[in-house]
Write a structure and sequence with these properties.
This protein is 42% helix and 21% strand. It has 170 residues and is of the alpha+beta class. It folds into two domains: 45 residues, no CATH class; 90 residues, Lrp/AsnC effector binding domain/regulation of amino acid metabolism (RAM) domain (Alpha-Beta Plaits), CATH 3.30.70.920. A four-stranded antiparallel sheet has the order 2-3-1-4. Helix 2 crosses helix 3.
Length: 170
């Protein structure tokens, strides 16, 4: 069971908690979640273990990728890569970035070699790449929850053409 949790599997949405918190029937929550899943706005929950995202003394690298071709093959390759801890498909900024990748490396040079190999493996498929390097002391100030919320809001805006209405009270 712990192996499943470490792989991010075996996690489920607590519809009862959401129903009580939002004062909405549980079946309504289930229907809305299923609709969001079907439209690709959200995906099934996984356990990210944010404090384990970066091994001690490693560098966390946030990379914005512009994937031009062979999107599925590149995603499959990155999913199986031991350096990649987290990936998010998104549309970000003016650079046409469509993938956010979080990876860990012992040295910046290791990351640069890794990125060069990725470019060679998929020639002419990857456009612009923007990297941000976070030292071990900076990595824990990063909030995965904030990034997730921003991505959901951007996706909702893309699907519906407007900013989402604030639905929950603080």
């Amino acid at each position: 069971m712990s192996q499943k949790l470490l792989q991010g599997k075996g996690i489920r949405t607590n519809e009862n908690f959401l129903a009580k918190k939002l004062n909405i029937h549980r079946k309504t929550i289930e229907r809305r979640i299923n609709a969001l899943l079907k439209e690709g706005i959200i995906s099934r929950p996984v356990c990210r273990f944010p404090l384990l995202i970066v091994p001690p003394e490693y560098i966390l690298v946030k990379s914005l990728f512009q994937i031009k071709k062979q999107h599925d093959k590149i995603l499959k390759s990155l999913k199986s890569d031991p350096h990649v801890t987290w990936m998010i498909k998104a549309i970000l900024g003016r650079g046409g970035y469509n993938l956010v990748v979080f990876s860990t490396f012992y040295k910046v040079e290791d990351h640069l070699e890794w990125q060069e190999k990725l470019d060679q493996q998929f020639p002419s498929c990857i456009g612009a790449v923007k990297n941000t390097y976070l030292s071990p002391t900076m990595a824990f100030s990063f909030s995965p929850g904030y990034v997730s919320i921003r991505i959901i809001k951007n996706r909702l805006k893309q699907v519906h053409g407007k900013e989402p209405v604030k639905m929950m009270k603080s």
